[in-house]
Design brief:
Keywords: Cell inner membrane, Cell membrane, Membrane, Transmembrane, Transmembrane helix, Transport. This is TRAP transporter small permease protein. The protein has one domain (about 1-165). The protein is mainly alpha-helical. It contains seven helices and no strands. Helix 2 (about 50-65) packs parallel to helix 7 (about 140-165) and helix 5 (about 85-125) runs antiparallel to helix 7 (about 140-165). The radius of gyration is 20 Å and the shape is elongated. The protein has helices spanning about 1-45, 50-65, 65-70, 80, 85-125, 135-140, 140-165.
Length: about 180
């Protein structure tokens, strides 16, 4: 069981690193927005590229934190049903949901997301108006990267849920607080 906990910690590490990176990206997003707003208001220097960059950074932050949100139990779920269930029942449901839904869906998202990114790169896809940002493949690459991070976070929780079921003396709650 200690091996599963160590493996869980190893799988959780990229999710935590991505969340820290996103914290810094929030600072960059704030700087870009402030520059854009002040530039538009006082110096007439705003551009479509800045607005697109704001959306790209915002989108990257949103998807790159999925794995961390799963680790921290900060994702959307319907707790009204699980509130009245026994602890072991909720853990079994969590294990089943990760194995049957989360991992297969994220594997498909990684597979098709990679093709999505590859096509954008090969075509030299950029902003449709021609006045925005080039290299659209960069933002599209966030989709398969986020899916891989979500798989990593899901597996970390799965292993911790197994430990919580088998050895509650080692771990009561599979989510970090």
């Amino acid at each position: 069981m200690n091996t599963l906990l160590r493996l869980s910690d190893l799988l959780a590490m990229p999710c935590r690193l991505a969340a820290r990176l996103c914290g810094w990206l929030l600072m960059a997003l704030m700087a870009v927005i402030l520059y854009d707003v002040v530039g538009r208001r006082f110096f007439s220097t705003g551009s479509f590229k800045l607005q697109e960059l704001e959306w790209h950074i915002h989108g990257a932050i949103a998807v790159l934190c999925f794995g961390w949100a799963y680790l921290a139990n900060a994702h959307v779920r319907i707790d009204i049903f699980s509130a009245n269930m026994r602890r072991n029942t909720t853990l079994w449901i969590e294990i089943f949901a990760i194995a049957a839904f989360l991992i297969p869906f994220m594997v498909l998202l990684t597979w098709f997301g990679y093709d999505f990114v590859l096509r954008a790169f090969e075509r030299g896809e950029g902003s449709p108006g021609g006045v925005g940002l080039p290299n659209r493949w960069i933002i599209k690459s966030m989709i398969p990267i986020a899916a891989i991070l979500t798989i990593s976070g899901g597996l970390a929780v799965l292993f911790r849920a197994i430990v919580a079921l088998r050895r509650p003396d080692l771990l009561q709650d599979p989510w970090e607080r």
